[in-house]
Design goal:
The protein has 422 residues and is α+β, with helices and mostly antiparallel strands. 28% of the residues lie in helices and 17% in strands.
């Protein structure tokens, strides 16, 4: 019971006190940045419960904590892979991690998306076999199926599923600008052996065949996962404070640009498991003992379905133009605090951005052409979301990719035209 209940209580405590949870590969208390780092990097504006609310959470958590302590970490014997890192090794990889790589922004086809041997063309017709033994997880309609022997893919589906649209736009924006994300491909997926709704009815139906449109197929980010053995994958956004340029980590401008981009798209569902620490291709080596090591650690963002709307406590807003348009980029313009409401399970909110980070992201954003911005939303098939707004003539009409592109340019200007205090 403790394994099921305690994590939820710890998430509540983290939201209340703005401290990360303890556990394998995680510190027992949030690192305290220096005053200089705080001014430069910004800690954001954490959400706190009133004393009575915090007392209630503590009353629930502390008895559970008394049931036992996390087991002491034991280093596996023999050569180890990167997904068997010790907590200290993981920490060192985070300190040396990069968050951005240069990309030829102006030449990229945002409608087609990231190329690759395992990529899918826009709205490709894909046939696959249902994989009921793989737990889909999460809270939105999805399932796994096999497109080729050994190639299982996650499929999100449903016209009312906002993640089907948001994930395409968000991941392609991150990819185009040089930040790490998974890859999402809009497709028409025919599943053999699926029920008509494999999210609600997960039993196999051997004689059935159903087509899901709209749908998206997920491909993971390139690289080898780095994690502590038997611990959850991922990293918390407050861990960006650990990156140290002096030992080869990303410069603060890149880190702050990533944090501002997360606020720009309203990525409120930023809990730890929504990110990955990977070793980029070509970076895996072996030490004298035969264990894998990494020379190219990289932090990537995954599962960005709760974006392009208005971030909230429950992560329920997804790909809604009227809500995204209503959110200013800046919560506090004078202090350069970006607007991002921290969710109940999130690991950061309202980040304070340095001028170096703002300027770096601005230089990337202005390289996007009007055509590319439009393609961000036409690739997502924005019109199929079914949202309606009031037109210039006062009559209600469907939202189009052009509407999304216009709002994107307006919000981009809030970043480009602004200046942060140094």
């Amino acid at each position: 019971m403790r394994a099921r209940v305690l994590p939820a209580f710890l998430a509540a405590l983290r939201w209340a006190s703005s401290r990360p949870p303890a556990g394998p590969g995680r510190p027992t208390a949030r690192p305290t940045p220096t005053a200089a780092a705080e001014r430069h990097h910004g800690a954001g504006s954490p959400t706190r419960l009133p004393p009575r609310g915090l007392s209630i959470v503590l009353a629930l958590v502390l008895p559970s904590c008394a049931l036992g302590r996390p087991p002491r970490y034991e280093v596996p014997s023999g050569p180890r892979k990167l997904d068997e890192a010790t907590p200290q090794e993981r920490l060192e990889y985070v300190r040396r991690a990069q968050v951005w790589r240069p990309t030829p922004i102006a030449t990229l086809d945002l409608r087609a998306g990231p190329p690759g041997d395992d990529a899918f063309s826009f709205e490709e017709a894909v046939t696959c076999d249902y994989a009921p033994d793989i737990e889909p997880g999460g809270a939105t309609p999805k399932f796994y199926c096999t497109v080729a022997p050994g190639d299982d893919v996650k499929v999100k589906f449903g016209e009312d599923n906002g993640e089907v649209y948001a994930e395409v736009s968000a991941t392609r924006l991150f990819w185009a600008l040089g930040f790490g994300a998974d890859r999402q491909y809009p497709a028409r997926v025919t599943c053999r052996g699926c029920s008509a709704d494999p999210w609600r009815d997960r039993a196999p139906h051997p004689a059935a065949e159903h087509t899901f449109d709209p749908a998206i197929i997920e491909r993971p980010p390139a690289g080898t996962t780095i994690k502590v053995k038997k611990a959850e994958k991922g990293w918390a956004w407050w861990e960006l404070l650990r990156i140290d340029e002096r030992v080869g980590g990303a410069p603060r401008a890149h880190v702050d640009a990533l944090r501002l981009l997360a606020a720009f798209v309203q990525h409120g569902d930023n809990k730890d498991e929504q990110q990955r620490l990977v070793c980029l291709p070509g970076g895996v080596e072996r030490d004298a003992a035969g264990s894998q090591t990494c020379t190219r650690p990289f932090l990537v963002v995954t599962d960005v379905g709760a974006t392009f709307s208005r971030a909230g406590l429950r992560n329920t807003n997804k790909f809604e133009l009227h809500k995204w348009a209503s959110v200013p980029v800046w919560q506090d313009r004078e202090r350069c605090v970006a607007k991002l409401t921290r969710s109940f399970t999130g690991s950061f909110g309202n980040p304070r951005i340095s001028e170096e980070g703002r300027a770096f992201l601005a230089r990337l954003l202005v390289q996007l052409s009007d055509r590319q911005i439009h393609d961000l939303f036409s690739a997502a098939r924005a019109e199929r979301r079914g949202e309606r707004i009031e037109g210039a003539d006062g009559r209600e009409r469907p939202v189009t990719a052009d509407d999304w592109a216009e709002t994107f340019r307006r919000k981009r200007a809030e970043i480009v035209a602004h200046r942060c205090p140094r």
